[in-house]
Structure formats: structure tokens, C-alpha cells
Amino acid sequence: MTLIPKIKYLTNKDLLKEIHRSKNTYCTYTDKAYSDYDLIVSSLEKLNIRTIAEAKRNRASRMSKIAHEAGMIAAGKKLPAKEFEVDYKKITKEELVFRIMTFEHIPLAPGRKKTLKNTADSHDKVNFPPFQHRTFDASNNLICVGKSHWKGPLDTGEFNKEHGQMTDNLARMFLKLCERYATRGNVRGYTYNDEMRGQAILQLTQIGLQFDESKSDNPFAYYTAAVTNSFVRIINIEKRNQNIRDDILEINGMNPSWTRQNSGSGPAAGPVTITTGGGEED
């Protein structure tokens, strides 16, 4: 029997890790080592001396953390991180892996949308921004070593957007996020709290992988905004239905709900707006 780890709290680090693992299930790589990237760039034109140096520093930092954790496990005690620092200047350009955000391998879908607002509108709809992983070879040429939404070998495979899945741990994180949000003082008193939580979970399953790591490293704010919008949507729907019921009761000479009576004559207040911390909008 496999033990499922209990999630006590959520961090951006853990969320980013599970998002990356989930997206990798939709990808194909020539080697498993290429599944981790050192830098995300929006296009090939962004690759220059500065971005390559940044990628080297990112890779050195990741290697240092891995070596530090392994060293502490082997020693059975805490060790200073400086002992495991990796000099980024010793990392060669051929070791780096770049994630290029591109629709190059995504099939065109003429007529999918009447008005084309961006590049994505002219291609087949995918569940997260597509990308390719590229690295430099010995001849200083950029070669493709991985593709998102791809099944089979890179040269003979085919586009496929349904063969992957969200990791179980990311799904549990979504459940924990909705569960904790539902206990907030401004929403926990509603009798339809379960409906709000269910709507939020459904929304996260739909947009969970749409988070773009190239634009932000704060998925917690992105998901919290989506959950907030889901809760507000259900609250406004329920209030609208309650107003309709109260209007019907008043038309028939019956007493409306206590909420209508306590608020005075006339319809109740308008749509509800719950404010939350800064983040990305869905």
C-alpha cells in the first residue's frame, strides 16, 4: 500500500515543482536529463551572452543545492552551504538547457477563432503554453532535445495534448488550497460553502497547468485569484437567485427572507466583490 504524504502547507517552490512534473508528462525528451531547464526565454532571439550567463548561474545554483542536500543526508547533520558551491564560470555552454516558448510544433487550426488576437489563436488549443527544450552542440548549433504536447520520438512522433496528466500531489495541493480558503471568515458562514469549494476545485483543474513560468514565479497568487473568482461567482449566483425568490414572495403577499427584511425594502445589495492579495488574473 502506497502512503500518500499529507500536505500541511503550500509554498511556491513546491507548487512550481509539481507544475513542472505535471507538464513533463505531456512532453517528450531525447534524454531524461533534458527535462530540467536552466532558463526560459520567449524566443530564440533572446539568447545572447547575458541570458547564457544567467542560465549558467541558475544551473550552478541548482547543482549547489542538490550537492548540499546530498551532503547533509550522507553526513547526517547540517553542513554549511558554502562547502558545496559550484562556480558558474566552470559550466560550459553545451551543458545548458533552454526552454523556448514557441508554437512551432503546434498544428495550425484555421477557423478556430474569427478574430486572431495572438499567435495562440491561430493554432490548436492546448492546456498550457507550449515550449521546446534546446541545447548547444559541439558545433555551437542549437538543437531541439524536447517538445511539449508531443508523443513519440522528436523526429517521427506526433502532436498529442491528451497523453499526460496532472500529478496526484498537485491535485492534493489544489484541494488543500480550496479547503483553507473555504475557512476564511468572509466566506465560511455561507450555507453554500460546499458549492463554492466545488466550483473552485473545478476551476483549478481546468486552469491549473496554464500557469506560465516565463512570466511569474508565484503560482500561489495565480491560483488564489482563481479560487477567489470562483467563490465570488457562486456567491453572486446565489444572491441573484435569493433576490428572485424574495421578489416572488413579495408579489404574492408573503414575507421574504430575513436577509431581505433586515436590509429594508427593495432588492438586496449588488454583486459581491472579495478582495485578495496581488496576483495574476486567469
Instruction: Identify the overall geometry.
Output: globular
Q: In order across it, which strands form the biggest sheet? A: 1-5-4-3-2
Low-confidence segments, given as residue ranges, are: 277-282
Percent helix? 25-40%
Percent strand: 5-15%
Number of strands: 7
Discrete helix count: 6
Number of domains: 2
Largest sheet: 5 strands, mixed
SSE order:
HEEHEEEEEHHHH
Q: Supply the helix-strand structural class.
A: alpha+beta
The chain-level mean pLDDT equals 88
Radius of gyration: 25 Å
Q: What descriptors fit this protein?
A:
alpha+beta, two-stranded antiparallel sheet, 282 residues, globular, single chain, 5-stranded mixed sheet
Notes on the structure:
With 282 residues, the protein is an alpha+beta fold. The protein has two domains: 1-25 and 165-282, no CATH class; 27-159, no CATH class. 38% of the residues lie in helices and 10% in strands. The chain has a five-stranded mixed β-sheet with strand order 1-5-4-3-2. The chain has a two-stranded antiparallel sheet with strand order 6-7. β4 and β5 form a beta hairpin. The chain is globular. Mean pLDDT is 88; it is low at 277-282.
